[in-house]
Amino acid sequence: MGSVLNNFSGDTICAIATAMSDAGIGIIRVSGPDAISICNKIYVSAKKEHNLSEHKPNSITYGYIVDESMNRDLCVIDEVMISFMKAPHSYTREDVIEINSHGGMLVMNQILELLIKSGCRMAEPGEFTKRAFLNGRIDLTKAEAIMDVISAQNNFALESSRSQLQGKISEKVKEIRQKIIYQMAFIESALDDPENYDLTGFSDNLINIINPIISEIESLIATSDEGKIRKDGIKTVIIGKPNAGKSSLLNALTGDERAIVTDIAGTTRDIIEETVRLGDIILHLIDTAGIRNTEDVIEKIGVDKAKAMVNDAELVLYILDSTSEIDGEDKEIISLCKNKKTIVLLNKDDLSSNIKISEEIVRNLFSESENESVPVIKTSMLKGNGIEDLKSAVTDLFLNGQLVPKQELYITNLRHKNLLQKTLNSLKLVIDSIEKGLSEDFYTVDLNDAYVSLGEIIGEEVGDDLVEEIFSKFCMGK
């Protein structure tokens, strides 16, 4: 991480830290070595004094932001409260000033412009958190957790991010790294000083140390798929023939007339996207055009889009009109669902006297297409029946029926998962070398690779490009 530190700017930066919208309060954040002196240029107390530097750290003071280059009668920009955090006891470990102004976009932008004119530089996205990382206040997993807390869409995502922010992943990684580096140090010492360090029986002991670590890492990796689903949600495509009830399902799940519902086949001609919550699971719903053979050029484009969407889907909700006969178009849709997690909704169950498609017929058709054990749910979009059964089916498919997190630590970050996999591969190579009877100096190469991969997770072994990529995804002012 040395090169990143060497490029670390000592500029004083500023940005609006709250949402860019009209609100009761807005916060402009300033961080850097000249934060106090710059803010003092544009701040006056109730006694009209530029005395910000005289206030105690970790305190709030009342006064005004002024632009003294303006007409004297109009120089007050806003009435404010100013918070002052002295380095190193601040978010960035630098001097930090937070100006609490009224929340109007115009007034906040005027204050921001004054700060820049007075010597600040506009902060890059995520630069405050990047400074917290570069100054050693947080590691990389905690920095990523901050963004996850901000973007959390459900309780699991929030709790998982909090756990990461509290250092649960960092602690586990550091614990494993400590075990690895101890073994590396012992091997190096024994190779340099064989008279005082005996490697007799070391290989057997190393296997007993490495195997539990391998099991631990495998358990962490195993949580990643479920963790991603719980955190990010499931890309879900609604498909079926025209007038089967696809748009009615979307409206039922969103609780809103999001899609047009009529008796006219082919109403939906483009993709409609919506995000809904089923219990503690997020579904990113995509309502598609009804799949059928059509001469309508626009509708055909919609049908082709629907078929393409199925290829990328993590879950397919296939709606069948249970009052219609199965035909070639249905069989084509079923073939699209091959190797996809699919739930079939037999709609219009309220018209019981006209039912022509049974659960058995559907299961037989899917069995013929090599898609076994497809859940089939009877629904009535008209009456709202079957939504709870759908929620249970999604939970069974993706979370093994569990709605409550089963353990304390989940891997929800793909970067972490990939680095854990690299660590696992390196440790397995150590075991392989031992079983092949190779000398101890071979072990240190793979042990070191595992140590470095773990270090990348927490940011102790990381390059400039990765740091820039991670923090560029942050919102401005964070």
Folded structure, characterized:
- This protein has 478 residues and is α/β, with parallel strands linked by helices.
- It has 3 domains: 2-139, Gyrase A, domain 2 (2-Layer Sandwich); 147-223 and 411-458, Four Helix Bundle (Hemerythrin (Met), subunit A), CATH 1.20.120.430; 236-399, Rossmann fold (3-Layer(aba) Sandwich), CATH 3.40.50.
- Helix content is 46%, strand content 16%.
- The chain has helices at residues 2-6, 35-42, 105-117, 127-134, 140-151, 155-165, 168-192, 202-222, 224-232, 246-254, 297-312, 328-336, 359-368, 387-399, 414-435, 440-458, 464-472; strands at residues 13-16, 25-31, 43-45, 59-66, 76-85, 96-102, 121-122, 234-240, 272-278, 281-287, 315-321, 342-347, 376-378.
- The strands form 2 sheets. It has a 7-stranded mixed beta sheet.
- Strand 1 (13-16) and strand 2 (25-31) form a beta hairpin.
- The longest helix has 25 residues, at 168-192.
- The radius of gyration is 30 Å and the shape is flat.
- The two termini are 21 Å apart.
- 37% of the residues are buried.
Essential attributes:
478 residues, alpha/beta, Gyrase A, domain 2, Four Helix Bundle (Hemerythrin (Met), subunit A), Rossmann fold, 3 domains, seven-stranded mixed beta sheet, six-stranded mixed beta sheet, 17 helices, disordered N terminus
